Amino acid sequence: MRMAQVSEHSGVPIATIKFYLREGLLPRGRRISTTQAEYGEEHLRRLRLIRALIQVGRMPVATAREVLAAVDDESLSQHQRLGAAAWALPGPVPPEQDGSGPDETEQARREVSALLARLGWQAAGPDSPPGQALTAAVATLARLGYPCDADHLALCARAAERTAEAELDLLESFPDRAAQVEASVALTVLYEPVLLSLRRLAHVEESARRFED
Amino acid sequence: MRMAQVSEHSGVPIATIKFYLREGLLPRGRRISTTQAEYGEEHLRRLRLIRALIQVGRMPVATAREVLAAVDDESLSQHQRLGAAAWALPGPVPPEQDGSGPDETEQARREVSALLARLGWQAAGPDSPPGQALTAAVATLARLGYPCDADHLALCARAAERTAEAELDLLESFPDRAAQVEASVALTVLYEPVLLSLRRLAHVEESARRFED
Description:
Chains A, B: Residues 88-109 are annotated as: Disordered. With 213 residues, chain A is mostly helical. In chain A, 69% of the residues lie in helices and 2% in strands. Chain A has a two-stranded antiparallel ribbon with strand order 1-2. Chain A is elongated.
């Protein structure tokens, strides 16, 4: 299909598609004349992913380019490519904005290490990007006077484990490895607001159960 | 204690404390002379909450003022006050920025209604703030070509239910009703990055289990 049809099918304006092409986020189409190129399904799929990263994940263009490079890197194992999203996506709390001092951060790092050991999680340590994000979040809680309870953290981690299993099942239902990797990145980002909204609804529900007359 | 000590204990600069006083977020201290006021533990606790809302929750000052008014409103039931955070906090996806059309939003609203009915959740409907946030997130997924699976959503909701129970247990461990309400608001905001980081770590772990040689 031509660029006008890509725009129509995806709902992305032509100017935005041209911007993504220029920035190297979207691969060029197959050139069929000096002024026209042909685009395929893979371009539509990639456009969905770019919008998930930039619009929903609010990711800077340079970071999106890095994530997409990992998605496309055939030399990585499928685990590494599927993990690219969880690994390379910017964490929910950028450590430099967290404001915690070195003592709180060091203490939080020890708590995160102990948690990972207790869970038997070995694939990503406390110094991986999501490990650092967790450390920053735990340090912020301590700094604001709400230190984390180790049992409570472990319980939340076990719940995350169960939903991760279901999410990987969902990913494996996508037709091929490239689509799985793209879906992994997109769903990591797109399900965050779903999960946070469900948590708030569950809070309201549980609070009603306990405190409503 | 005097304002200088409040600043020292909380780590909040005096200029910031004066800003919170001026904006009506922090109650005035008990005046003990024409130039000095006395502050207590309740001011320290309130400062922690204000920082959780504004610094971590990135909440506008006007919204923080509304949440704090609900926290302080003795005419509300404890359920309503504990629910104030989940209810009044700005959702993870502001609907007006979501970009979904009316058809996608209407379809998503039906899916959210069906989910709440299936779960037996009755305290907050699809038109409550967290219900609207969920609807917007589900509509975005559909718009970007990843429609939600009803069974998967229900599974995520059940996991949220279990962590909500544990979170309410944690809240009930706070000494009095005012402290519980403040902790409810603070923990709703402060645990979001914890839970999102745990989810990413769980993804990396589960992906390693399935795909690593």
